[in-house]
What we know:
Chain A is mainly alpha-helical and 474 residues long. Helices cover 70% and strands 6% of the residues of chain A.
Amino acid sequence: MFAGLDPHGIALVLARMQFAFTVSFHFIFPAFSIGLASYLAVLEGLWLKTGKTLYLDLFRYWLKIFSVAFAMGVVSGLVMSYQFGTNWSVFSDRVGGVIGPLMAYEVLTAFFLEAGFLGVMLFGMKRVGKRLHFAATLMVAVGTFISAFWILSVNSWMQTPTGFEIGAHGQFLPGPSWTAIIFNPSFPYRLVHTVIAAYLTTAFVVGAVGGWHLLKDRANLHARLMFSMAMWMAAIVAPIQIFAGDMHGLNTLEHQPAKVMAMEGHYQSHPDGAPLYLFGVPDDKAQTLRFAIGIPKASSLILKHDLNAPLAGLDTIAPENRPPVWIVFWSFRIMVGLGFAMLGLGLWSLVARARKRLYDWPALYRAAIVMGPSGFVAVIAGWVTTEVGRQPFTVYGLLRTADSVSPIAAPAVAASLLAFVVVYFAVFGVGTWYILRLMRDPPHPHEDGPEQDERAPIRSAGITPAQQAEGAVK
Amino acid sequence: MIDLTVIWALIIAFAVFMYVVMDGFDLGIGILFPAFAPGEERDQAMNAIAPVWDGNETWLVLGGGGLLAAFPLAYAIILPATYPLIIAMMLGLVFRGVAFEFRWRDPRHRAFWDMAFFSGSLVAALSQGIILGALLQGVHVEGRAYAGGWLDWLSPYSLLTGAGVVAGYALLGSCWLALKVEGTAESKAFGYAKWAAWATLGLMAAVSLATPFLAGQYFQRWFTEPMIFWLAPVPVITGIVAFTLLRSLGNRHAWLPFVLTLVLFLLGMIGLGASMWPWVVPQSVSIWDAAAPHRSQVFMLVGVGLIMPLILIYTGWAYWVFRGKVDSHGYH
């Protein structure tokens, strides 16, 4: 891997690995908490509207899981806000004037909102009453959205930079219009595609937990409700996501053709209709796709809506500007494959509803359990596709990754990478295990929220959580 | 001469101050954690900050994000210059942050997570203090980049500021606890606050005496006319505040010690600001050298002007919701 690299090259590879590692780990948590915050708001809203404690029980059940996932998102996100400076200081110096303000807006409009209302959401039900508490839950949910808005604007600008000027020292300066920077060409597509991905990720986790408990006890009303809600989400949103992804891909073809070439495995140009490769082994050295199996002309049909449309390949791109194909090719296939598997499960649930077997079909529950983590894998695969597909640039076509890295020696970057790997696997591994343990407990009436939960080891005499919960409802 | 760059320097200073005092008492409670008995005392200490720590830590994200946005060059120099410290601080804050959730989830390993809470808080506080010292003693810059080694920050002076910040946070934490907890934990908090107050004042004095001898610029700033007349009140007021703080701790006053500690931190901040001005990386990069483009400054200032008051209002409301004493049972 490090063969034939100069010291700078080794430090660069390590810095890229560190960013990929820390951002992938971080992204898992927001992907889950964006969807879960909305789900919690829906549950609490339904409880306020109908007065059915079933909804309140589910709210409390998922709130405990949310609190653990959110804490892990917060601490791993804090690391991200300093990654740019520690390992990518030249990038920060060049681009800070453009992307810095967008990230500052993220802190001002999203992070403070989430953090400020989270305490009330977790511990404040009895102190502020139902309506204000619901308002706090809504604020947290809105905060997760706003956060996605700004950070995806930053990421999109790096992919499709617009609205900037170049100043002294190669600095990127903002042009006269901030909307040209924020709403850059790939931003709307990426935002829609990513937020839907977060919703699907949460839906499949909720569906897996519901399926697990239905396998154990098909009469559990709480499990039935969460399973049904999750399957509606899958059936309705998975097809929308495939459509949104296709739109996003066409937008990428327009602005970053080399990325699409890598996704499709098109090393060579196809003057009269390009095949859609389902399988192949990309060989970057020889610039060919070995053992390729494809559907003739299908790639042209998807990308150009014309069987015989010519499609350019990577042979039209200067060698030093080509992304590494094998990573992009495979991560893209993993994402798309999972997308269709999600669609399949959604359709199966519709069949089950039509046959009145939604609460009596163990095979469906097993499939839902297997698909539980699919959202996370798809999200990471999609992330890898778009980020590695941007290589060898940090700001597409304008600033090379090799010219963005900090003047930090390889041993320091290696040591910090090792520290992150050890700590992240230990801490987030344990946290994930705690979440799984919470999910293992069946949802039941008079579910404890986090505030009662904390009293579990030291319960006050004569007051049971059930009475407490009723006290909260009055 | 007030321009946008000066305003931004003040905004970043405000964010840093907010972070230091607010997460300061969180970290201080973590630093003192082993000195409280497992069970009732520790549960109370944890509950005193459980609903607010996340909001407090967000000021650190604003400090880092704001520095990148308002002074990109400073961000690009300071972070590589203090690289191991930043990484250590991050990892410390990871342990500290998850401990809040994990210790409740897993009674069998509670002792371990209590330890993680303590060591994470201590490492984060110490790193922040050493970063402060490293910055004040200056870093080696060539062109637009850090050009020193990766242990340049280590010096007796930076270790001194590191110890000072740890003591200061312990003082903030114990004063906050004195305000929020009851029973044996409250008595202990007052006891630790006295120790922490003496330690903080001693280390503040040591840092104040050492700083002018770091570089001629600091010496000139403090000991030449007419500056000496402007800056002379700072140590005098500090002395008065210190005396009142020790008295109020002796009288076991509820909120006065915490307020006076805030004033003490504010005075320390003014002293540091007076020393550093107008450098953002002392001796090498001034705030104007590092400033973001004019359009970036204007765009963000609109955001800060509109949103910061709202943030302060709802953050204040969250504190108000959880006002008063906590007990070991969390919030009812």
